[in-house]
Amino acid sequence: MHPESLYFLFSPITRLKGIGDATAKALHRLLPAATDGGLPVVRDLLFHLPVSLVDRRFTCSLAEAPDGVVATFIVTIGEHEPPPVKYGKKRPYRVYCSNDTGEITLVFFHVSTDYIAKALPEGQKRVISGKVEHFDGMLQMSHPDIIAPVSQLAEVQKPEPVYPLTVGLTSRRIAKIVGDAISKLPNLPEWIASEYLTSQKWPGWKDALIAAHHPNTPEELLPISPARMRLAYDEMLANQLYLGLLRRAMQRQSGTVITGTSKLTNALLKVLPFTLTGGQTEVLKEISADMKSGHRMGRLLQGDVGSGKTVVALLAMLKAVEQGLQAALMVPTEIVANQHFETLSKLTETLGIDICLLTGSVKGKAREKTLADITSGKANIVIGTHALFQEHVTFHSLALAVIDEQHRFGVGQRMALGEKGAAPHILHLTATPIPRSLTMTLYGDMDCSSLREKPAKRLPITTRVIPLSRYGEIMERLKAALDKGEKVYWVCPLIEEKTIEGELELTPENDIAAAQSRFTEFKARFGDKVGLVHGRMKGEARNAEMAKFSSGKTQLLVATTVIEVGVDVRDATIMVIEKAERFGLSQLHQLRGRVGRGDKPSACVLLFSDRVGDVAKSRLSILRESEDGFKIAEVDLSLRGGGDLLGSRQSGLPRFIFTHLYQHIDLLQHAREDIGALLDADPRLESLRGKALRLLLQLFGYEVLDERTKQASEAV
Q: pTM of the entire structure?
């Protein structure tokens, strides 16, 4: 339930004037922040800001009007010239107009003559506004944007906001509905510290929202305009408050004291085929200190591709097992779960511990046995997908939960696993290097560790950027590589497809179509050496294809980005990424990390479309120049923004509306410090500002992410 002051903002948009069923459906398609069961509310509409504006203030002599500009004129309506009857609507309807400075022809196609006669009565003056151009030496305006009485000139010449649209809506329609919503905006208490608000010279929340919807200049559309800076800071305050409450709730929880005996960890270190890096040793010290502190651990371990996160996680889990406790490793896909199971089973085969696998593909008696082993405690380490946090999975003594690629899981999923057992310690892993700003917004509720050092024997990967026009040459090199017994990944991208409305849309199925097409082509060319994996294959089929590729039964694996994370075929040496310009830099870096994992030289080939411009080519060249995932992630963030960096469809990401992380990094840092100081002084949010910040949390929807958020707030 929302407090009374927020009732209007969270009421259905159908409360606003002029919204019928058709408009409501169009707004439902348009507004990505829709809440309350997927139905858009007034707040969602008000948070949908214009992206550009049309300035109709320009006017000039008709005789001197330049081509291609939007201009506004007062004209006298002259003769109407309907198309001859024999041509029907194939010819335009023309209306000749003039003023003291010249003449202009208004041109209409497929329009009602009754409408034109009523809108443009001969002999009267009207305001017309639209794009002007010359045709056969005559000035004309095709389908004027606005035709209005002269008395409305001032209204016509107000800058007109342009909104992101969908079929069935126009910018003017949205602006009219927004106008009704703005007229009913409540006055909310100020949640920004007064001294900071004054120093920044920002407007209040209500005035900022009004200004954001009524820009007068292009500069007012920029993320650094005062109104938008204010709204971005509001959003960051809400984000940091939410994470701060979660962090403090976690810190107040008691955790199982895990010291271990070193018996299993020392035994593993003796059989490892490598020595731990300095970074791995340091991170293990941090994790060990957390687990024996008596407080519940919540730590994120970031590690670039090949930095050795899995071994660190295994050593942490063994500490729990040494003490007679259980550990769990949750991963996003069955392919990765199977690979982790095989890898960890081999590493620990001499240690005498029981590792089990639980995924959707484990069925029947095998599943019953696995569940029984987990419940009895016979299973020391459990590896699985989201199946691990289902209600019927009962752990005997879960003390440590490791969550791999945690941004791929929603908050509710992660917390559900964290509720198994007696408040287990949580260690999050990610192989996606994350810029500092994203770390603060995604993982501000956790302590963070980084592995930047790669094992000494890790070979560099040669990266080449090549146009698709050299496809024939690529095929020759591919054949030569296969003849030498090398293993190759060929990754297919999302492909653009036109919808019925004529808009470009990307759908998850389209990359599958592209992969299947390449598979068919390569199968005809290379025979049984070719395999195929994609996200819609059943787990058993995907695992079988990966096993064939890993064993060498196939050498060329055509795939979608399902192989992006965690797939480990150590003797794969070539990665080809088709239409690489359609991927983010961080995603390309992740895909590149699927090769170069063994002792053979490896290469990554980025194929780009011939029509790609110089900017896209230079962007790809960053991959050629660097293998530092953290550096690449920073560049990617500056180019694409936080949502796209990790994948906008990932459920764990906050959906930022006003915040541009790269441009607002200083504001984010201030918000983090501000909230830290506030929670130290007012942990229960009982002050006037604290109560206002409670409203802010609800305004940005954080209370609906998970009911446990409220419990965390109350616990503090």
A: 0.71
